[in-house]
Description:
Oligomer: single chain
Amino acid sequence: MITKGFVTRILALTVCLLISALSRESLAERAYFDITASDMRKIVVAVPNFSGDGQGAAVAQLLTKGLALHSFLNVIDSSRFGGSRDADWKSLGVDYVILGQVGGDPAGMLIEGAILDVASNKTLAGRRYKGAAAQLEDMTLRLCDALIEDFTGEMGVARTRMAYVSDATGRKEVYVTDILGRHPRQITSHRALCVSPRFTPDGNFLAYSTYHRGNQDLYITDLRQSATTNSLSRRKGLNLAPAFSPDGRTMIITLSQGGNPDLYVMDRQGQILQQLTSGAGINVSASFSPDGQQIAFVSDRSGKPNVYVMNAGGGQAKRLTFKSSENSEPVWSPKGDEIAFTGLQGGSYQLFVMDRNGGNVRQLSTGGGSYESPTWSPDGRMIAVTRKSGSRSEICVVSKAGKDVRVLFTMKGNQSYPQWSGRLP
Length: 425
């Protein structure tokens, strides 16, 4: 399904770290794809080697990976056309071709790319970036996200990160990697169980819970350095990983200092500002709505774990889930219209999405395994989730339409507790 629109756009991009993006014009009428339609087929795209210096093949390969992350595209393998720019695209079933070039520039490097519509043989859009040679990878991913915008009207998510827990060292430590999994970085070295990493809204800090002192304590680390980490809460009992408010100034965490696990509002210095629940069952897994006005959370006050919502300042809670015998881990979508959660079905947890009022519940996960810890992409079009099968645990992504459950990373060890960052500046 395509939503027609005639758009003439001149876009000036200001890029940090010495990267400057030059203005560009649309070269043809624009038609954005409605990629949320459940009956939409994938758009077939080819990325031949970029012309220019010797890095053209490497740039095309990285761009291919970035585009393939977005589930509405089917980016065909370059081996089918040998990386050539002059293939018979129609016989290959290709809808669009990304034609680009990379080369030297007084600033260091220049990269540009444009979308060729195979059916009409017209160029639909073009983008150009220049910057230091060391920034070629970042410029390539900026180009990727800009091309996604040309297809859909919204920037892509190739320039994002994922926090997660891995047992690659033999212990479950916290890591952060770019979303394509090429540059994993170990954040913790506690040599003890670490769980539930959470980015602050600006992406500069990461909170997590760890058992390295024998209690489930809450810590936060500045990702712009690698020397220290600071405790947020070492209160006796549970100190569960927080849900940060949209402005990043406060967080809602679960503490069991009073005996019952309840929700508390805490500031960035670890001071309790307010208790939100009191003794009404176990209360965990808070998630803010994007406007900061409401929270979704899990409580077993009805006898089994279910998803509830209430005002962020406290008050009466409303139950949303009734379909599965147990429902948990709610996560509000970036657009605020939906909530993802996991529900117990046939002895395993499956991934579901519902409207913010609890209606229109639909299962997204398919195949075997149990699904845990959902997290939305910043564009609200995909959900990353842990899939467990036997002793194996891996991070997968699935489109909001419930198609294409794909393994996101191929890494040593088991990965779990994914947390998708916002877009990088």
